Amino acid sequence: MTTVVGGIGTSHVPAVGAAIDHGKQDEPYWRPYFEKIQPAREWMAAQQPDVCIVVYNDHASAFSLQLIPTFALGVAAEFQPADEGYGPRQVPTVQGHPELAWHIAESLIGDEFDITIANEMDVDHGLTVPLSVMFGEPDAWPCRVIPICVNVIQYPPPSGKRCLSLGRAIRRALDSYAGSDADSLKVAVFGTGGMSHQLQGERAGLVNAEFDLAFMDELVAEPDTGCLRPHTAYIREAGSEGIELVMWFVMRGVLDDEVDEVFRMHHVPTSNTGNGLLILQNARGRAARRSRGPSGP
Amino acid sequence: MATTRDYDDIPGTYVFDGRRSQQGYHLNMFCMSLNAEANRERFRADEAAYVDGFDLSPEQRQAVLERDWLGMLQQGGNIYYTFKLAILDGLSMQDVGGAMSGVSGQEFTQMMIDGGRSIEGNRRVGESAATSGSAGGTP
After folding, report:
1. Which residue, A47, A132, A134, A191, shows the most beta carbons closer than 10 Å to its own?
2. Does the beta carbon of B120 lie under 8 angstroms from any beta carbon of chain A?
3. Where do the H-state alpha helices sit in chain A?
């Protein structure tokens, strides 16, 4: 069995990746954002996870309208940064963890979560920007990564409730992992995307900071209620692309029912987006209590 | 498939549901093809000839060649796909956001720095004049 060291909710704004890649962090537009996220990077450096499960969405890079898996799990040994139209980001190749990824795939499907399995899948900014946000610019990513790609582009995306359930099923898989490195494996999980933003139409540029902060409150304290928010409520209140926030519920589901909020940041704007970063850890002193495990100590 | 949806009253918003995906499949797959540098080169060399390799409607073809960003959405385009064309043109998401909402890229950028477009008055069509038009309208 593995140890879940924490959950990270973060936006995955491409312009943040471009700011890092092109050395713009000290420019007046960007400096406040990068100063705000510094404590999160320090937390991450202290955790030293061996594996990060990154829940993200592909933006017409590895997948297109030709084939639209609602949930896809990457089981490959490595994943290349995708060419999204600018040429690939110059960031390290993402190293996978096939043994754990295959265990998760088998466990999920045995658990009636019929996930798509991907052996070849380039990863776009949805996955690489969160790594840059948390790890900066290393020569190699300091952990292995298991990508979980969620369709949020072709409407309808999965419900928040389904995403929370997926997270809990992933947690059961982590708890039952008996691979060669199982005793010492530290895992962090990312839920990415959002927060409020709308890229399209005459309403482009919509940001709703009040919604974003309330969303984080609910995700922390009342995930079983928060996950019931209908899709139209996301679109109306948080913008058409704000619906990506359902992916944060996968992260939340991997954690215990009771969590401690370690860090929270919200910044407007990065590009067209209300940018949020939230770090949660399983509540201290309740390590034995799991989402779907024994009912208490 | 229901012909109306409960999100149809959200102003200035083109939810990419099955209705739009059917309409825009070839338009979006044209945009998708621009992920490959070799295709970007072919498109730059002769836009009309390249576009004619895809099964676009006359309206879609015209919207692409004229860079009518809102028109592409109205013809079934999805912003993540149509933005690949904007990348090719060297445009930012603020440039395209401005073009779709009837302001310059610079004005749009300033609106974002000032906190973005407010939700107040922008939840439902007819709520206020804060957006320049309803879904399907033209700025």
Report:
1. A191
2. no
3. 14-21, 31-47, 98-110, 125-135, 160-175, 209-221, 223-226, 231-238, 248-254
